[in-house]
Amino acid sequence: MFLPHMNHLTLEQTFFSQVLPKTVKLFDDMVYELTSQARGLSSQNLEIQTTLRNILQTMVQLLGALTGCVQHVCATQDSIILENIQSLPSSVLHVIKSTFVHCKNSESVYSGRLHLVSDLLQALFKEAYSLQKQLMELLDMVCMDPSVDENDDILNMVIVIHSLLDICSVISSMDHAFHANTWKFIIKQSLKHQSIIKSQLKHKDIITSLCEDILFSFHSCLQLAEQMTQSDAQDNADYRLFQKTLKLCRFFANSLFHYTKEFLPFLSDSCCNLHQLYLQIHSKFPPSLYATRISKAHQEEIAGAFLVTLDPLISQLLTFQPFVQVVLDSRLDLPCELQFPQCLLLVVVMDKLPSQPKEVQTLWCTDSQASETTTRISLLKAIFYSFEQCSGELSLPVHLQGLKSKGKAEVAVTLYQHVCVHLCTFITSFHPSLFAELDAALLNAVLSANMITSLLAMDAWCFLARYGTAELCAYHVTIVAHLIKSCPGECYQLINLSILLKRLFFFMAPPHQLEFIHKFSPKEAENLPLWQHISFQALPAELRKQTVHEVSTVGTAECRKWLSSSHTLGELESLNTVLSALLTICNSAGEALDTGKQTAIMEVVSQLWAFLNIKQVADQPYVQQTFSLLLPLLGFFIQTLDPKLIVQVITWQTSLLKLEPPDYVRLAMLDFVSSLGKLFIPEAIQDRILPNLSCIFALLLADRSWLLEQHTLEAFTQFAEGTNHEEIVPQCLSSEEIKNKVVSFLEKTGFVDETEAAKVERVKQEKGIFWKPFANVNVEEAKRSSLQPYAKRARQEFPWEEEYRSALHTIAGALEATESLLQKGPAPAWFLMEMEALQERMDKLKRYIHTLG
Question: d(Cα 208, Cα 259) in Å, to the nearest integer?
Answer without folding.
Answer: 12
